[in-house]
Amino acid sequence: MPRKSKKLSELILGNSYVKDVWAEYADPTLTPKYYVSRFDDKKKHRFYYFTVDGNIVISAGVTTVFNTVSLERDAIDQWKENNPNWKQLLNISSEFGTLEHIVYGDILWKKKIDKQNLVTMQQILLSNGGDIDMPIKDVLAFYKFREDYQLIPLLIEASLAYKDPVTGNWLTMTIDLLAKMVVTTKVKKEVLVGRYVQGNKKGQDKYKTVTEEIKEERIVVIDFKSNFFDKSKKSFYEAHKMQLMGAKLAVEYNFDLKVDGVYNYAPNSWHTQPSYTLYEHKLTDEDWTVYNAYWNLAQVKKINIPSGKFLLADNPKDSTDFRILNYEEYVKEKLIKDNIV
What we know:
Blueprint: E1 10-13, E2 16-19, E3 23-26, E4 37-41, E5 46-52, E6 55-59, H1 62-69, H2 74-82, H3 86-108, H4 115-127, H5 134-149, E7 152-163, E8 170-195, E9 205-224, H6 238-254, E10 261-267, E11 276-280, H7 285-300, E12 309-312, E13 323-326, H8 327-336
Parallel strand pairs: 9-10
Antiparallel strand pairs: 1-2, 2-4, 3-7, 4-5, 5-6, 7-8, 8-9, 10-11, 12-13
């Protein structure tokens, strides 16, 4: 049974969230080049940070970078137009998705699911007009997914950094799942079964078509989607593919591994038997051309380097008793000083 790399350490600072353990689970043979932490708060400060040769690096995440530069926005913009309260809906979806990721981790470790997480997921649905059975249906669908593909987790919720070999710029991300899985492919082939003994083909070889199953173990990156809003539709956008391509680069940069495929996973709305969608993004030369074009645009516009300010004035004594820090200063003087990393 897999073991956690170490106890997940999370710190809530007011409205801020810091994840300072690079992976919720890591195979003991995998060690990243850099230990990456993630910072997030309700003031829209969101970034990753780590040290390279004693210097702090601040980087945006792959989701932020590619969602910002992607041209495939029509469907997303239409959804926002159809849902004036889209910000609230996204917050609800994010809360539900976070809990679902935790439950999936329990399943992958083959340990007992924390029922309180399921209860909280049900409460979210009850408060927002959802199906109270959705959490347990999603759990059963994920069990079936694990069984169908004989999943062996290598990384769960792992934060990784990737360095562009040409520009030297950084891209960071949290990978939902890096795993070994067994993929079964059905191949039709003609098999010799004898010779014709009569008729026009007498004496000729006789064949029949048979279907052969070929099993292949692959190393894959999988990104989970809860499909919280409409499980009858499975929409995977260009940005989803770009994020997974970034994850593939990061895994291969950090470890002596080759990623054989990238996938999105989503549970279905099922009634009689657990079911799910596992969508493989086939990567072509054209996809990599698009990826590089977006990435180059992000670097030119400096989207990969977060910018912003933190106001520090916990208990001011007068109008001058405050400080305004940039991200690097905040990491040095607040996060590292408070032993968060």
